[in-house]
Protein: Methylmalonyl Co-A mutase-associated GTPase MeaB
Amino acid sequence: MIKKRKSLEEYKAGILEGNRAVLAQAITLVESNLSADSDLASALVQVILPYTGNSIRIGITGVPGVGKSTFIEAFGRILLDQGKKVAVLAVDPSSQKTGGSILGDKTRMEKLAADRRAFIRPSPSGKTLGGVSSKTRESMLICEAAGFDVILVETVGVGQSETAVKGMVDFFLLLMLAGAGDELQGIKKGIMEMADGILINKADGDNIPAAKRAKNHYQNALHLFPPSESGWYPSVTIGSSLTGEGLNDCWKKISEYQNHMMERGLWNENRFKQRLNWLDESIQSILGKAFLEHPEIQKRLPEGKEAVKKGTLNPIAFAKELTGLFFKK
Amino acid sequence: MIKKRKSLEEYKAGILEGNRAVLAQAITLVESNLSADSDLASALVQVILPYTGNSIRIGITGVPGVGKSTFIEAFGRILLDQGKKVAVLAVDPSSQKTGGSILGDKTRMEKLAADRRAFIRPSPSGKTLGGVSSKTRESMLICEAAGFDVILVETVGVGQSETAVKGMVDFFLLLMLAGAGDELQGIKKGIMEMADGILINKADGDNIPAAKRAKNHYQNALHLFPPSESGWYPSVTIGSSLTGEGLNDCWKKISEYQNHMMERGLWNENRFKQRLNWLDESIQSILGKAFLEHPEIQKRLPEGKEAVKKGTLNPIAFAKELTGLFFKK
Structure:
């Protein structure tokens, strides 16, 4: 299905004006898998690059049920009240299967979505995780060029997309629930060490004492673990999307983090690294795709892989054989 | 410098007999960077594969000064006393620079080295981390074919080689010192979440109370963090390489872990995954090397990379341009 596209200049002008319809169409272009669209999308991202980089990029994760969408709705409105323009993007490697998150997001974030200073973009529909993350990065740049001050990137998946999101944001926020450990079951090992901040969510009514206990537990525990290279210890706050309590504190912590990083020259350094990693990942992704689509590789790989797995074929020797086939012609 | 090599059959026969001189020569062959050696090494690993896989592979890490070598010496002797044959390999990405670890290891592990049931192999001299880790994997297989029951893989580097070692062992042991947090400064974030077990080292004399407190702290803290997918919580033990106290407990924990994993079918599953990852890494390493050595890439990459870093060039567009150059001819 070929869709009608705008010209490069039309997209650029519309984005820089903050035209929401053009912004949405530009993201659709970026998310497209048609190769003609892909070239236009690359060119578009290139021409808007000088207008990017001025937002705070915040990744938000947590297990299903922790209340990510209601948090984003409440948190987003606090930012709007401060005069900020807020964009919400979602990374959801599983959306191809469930298809449910799009409607869900729209329903749950309806107040935020109704505000003209906010822009909510549901998950791109499926495809590979690497692809989705690359498309989210491009969408983020487009939102920045359109003048958004804060980009919230929500991970909808469980444990698969966190590394990708960590690699594209300035601050990585983990939402948790108070409780005696059960709430950890859904969190993948290593996610907590990625967090720049933790918010104990649903800290309202009868939950408040438990949330405060959880906050103290985690704060103590985090001090037993190595700090990040920046010297920043992840902050732990409690908050409620229902009452709005604690959400300002959460924003304050993010601002503190920004100051901490900027004073040390690490804010930009992190973005430098992220851009170089994005380049590396893009090259690896293209090389890997070409490799796996090579007919000789497709013929030889499945059987050899099984033998490697069983331990009857030397992985190094097999890698040499396969790359020899790949480079032969 | 071309060295005289044995034939494939001579290497194989010597290794299977447990001939230490041949074993050492075979590892030298594996560590060689001559392409003729590389083919012979791959063939050798292939023919000994049926005799591999029967050891317990233990990775040992910790900051410099934590006492890794003295621990390995003491721990290794306990294993020898149980009738086990013990091989010690080291992964040291920094040895090319310092050159000091080889002598250091030999001096510090002299009692273990003097025992005919032990085999100690200092770090391969430098080269890339990926290369070293691949060579260590091959050396490990050769030691297994030579009849060693326990392979201890020591990371000598600080924070760079841990992921590589985690990816090649069954159990990953982190050595720590008691103290109020200072000892964490040298540990890279994420390493603690990789550990299957933690040993508070140097728990002797006046240090014992502090070591016990540290043990309790870490045990409590670790329960606040997500368990691994296997359901195993990292054990925390205290030990002294000086008195030998606690080292049997450490071995018991490793055996418990082995039972835990075997009962769930995860012991082999972990090795399946490691072999497939090794294959992936080998393919990526060969493709990446060919890419970076391509003359057109070498001409275009430095300037473009700088532009990507600064945010003036779209990483996706640049990746397409470079891979286009790579596949052109």
